[in-house]
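Database export, one record per block. Field names are fixed; values are copied verbatim from the stored entry.
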Amino acid sequence: MNKDLVRGNAIIGQSGGPTAVINQSLVGVIEGLRLGLHAAGIVDKIYGMRHGVKGLTKGDLIDLTTMHQDKLDLLALTPSAGLGSTRDKPDDAYCDRILEACKKHNVRYFFYIGGNDSSDTCRIVSEKAKASKYDMRCFHVPKTVDNDLMENDHTPGFPSAARFVAMACMADFLDNISLPGIKINVVMGRHAGFLTAASALARRRDREFDDVPMESSDGPQLIYCPEVAFDTEQFAADVEAIYSKKGRCHIVVSEGIQDKNHVPIGAKLIKNAQVDSHGNVQLSGSGALGDQLGDLLKEKLTPAGGKPPRVRADTFGYIQRCWPDASVIDRMEARRSGRFAAQLALHGEQDGSVAIVRTHSGSSAWLGSTQGEAYASDYKRVELSAIAAKTRHMPAEFLKGHNNVSRAFIEYCLPLVGELPGFARL
């Protein structure tokens, strides 16, 4: 333990979209503090912010110092943000109020669980504390189903959401071959396609090799990520090529697909669309994109004088974030991320973000045997500025053409989601 640690209180908040494992991180921070700084008499109280920094500035806090371990263990297995979350993006003046609230409650250790905006809040508050000569240590704990944080192999929350997408697409594909037609599923991911790409795990892996023709694979046969320009004419042609042969087509589309000029397709197709506080067209809470793409296909694929094809669309929406069947790896890593943040404080770090590092690839998960290496990960501290307000995108090696993902992505993602069921086919 560093001898220069300042005595005071610790506070923890959750921000942004909830996940199936964000409470694992919360409990991890609490456990790490209890075993370290609290046990050493450095941290007196461990507070939780109700609804993130919004609650902090209003003094809406909960004392977590002596919460029984049984309740913590149950909380860790509970999806969504136990403390409540916020979408606030604090500006300079807002961060002044955050710092004043911390001073009022003698907070010397500040932990914020969230995505890139949350890390930016952490960075600004840390800089303001240093400028005012108030000794407060600020740490960001990663969280996001989008998997779009820089410096991380992957982020807590993504494996569980990816597991949901994969299993939902497994079942939905079987539905599609039972009652054939064209089916479109819209998946979260405004700027990064990792979660959309996870739908590829629904395919039978014994056929998913680069030398197997696309038409012989299970669905989804077409996967569109925002990293690749989306062309509506090409989209219609892609669907027609499969539908004309099979009489059905299974499609997964990212909510953030955009054209070659980086204009979101949702903004182009959805008429009178609602926008959020940042001017972005509402995507996750609306089925409009799927409906518009469905109407587009009916228009393009209806033969002269004939009937339009049967097209249906679902938007997975918010349900994919907190489905209570979390990946085992995700549970473990989210909790350990929280504990690691508390250890950074114990070792005297002034600030930083936690990043997950993959140390063993987990290739045996792909092979379905004991061959290859088991998956393993570790944690490291990275500068807040390396993550704050930045977005990670799917690397080129994870993409295959304009409507598919590569085997490299499957090998990357499969160990994270855990064992998936196998279904019989007649």
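Remark 1: The domain at 8-145+324-386 is CATH 3.40.50.450 (Rossmann fold).
Remark 2: The two ends are 62 Å apart (CA to CA).
End of record.
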